[in-house]
Amino acid sequence: MLLRTLPVRLSLGSEAATTAVVTIAEWTMLERLRRAVMPAALCWCVAGLLLPIPLVHFVAPPLLLIAGPVVFVWKFFTRTSFKEVVGVCPRCKGEARTMSMGGGVSDETNVFCEGCGNQLTLRVSKPT
Known about the structure:
By secondary structure, the chain is of the alpha+beta class. Helices cover 30% and strands 33% of the residues. The protein contains two helices and six strands. It has helices at 29-50, 60-76, and strands at 2-11, 18-26, 80-87, 97-100, 108-112, 119-124. Strands 4-3-2-1-6-5 form a six-stranded antiparallel sheet, with no helix packed on it. The two termini are 26 Å apart.
């Protein structure tokens, strides 16, 4: 896993935007395969465990058998993901906080401040 950092802007409504640094993980193909196989296998194992339960076995196992490949494809094709963002919250203006996050990399996403709990908008600065 290759880690890289990018400057970002944190904003919240009418508060003045602040700068932060986000850490992005770039996954190799082997790591993406490992990350994709585990949740898919978990879906299939839970589907097998739910087979003997009356009424539940009509709904849950088929849904989990379908969800396995869907989760596999979704995880496998996620090449990069956000790991954390370090910066000052526009609302509480406290010291630099580390806010953990996940999900695929996009130009704009949301993150929650661990100090005040507000949902902040994170915008990746475009290189010029």
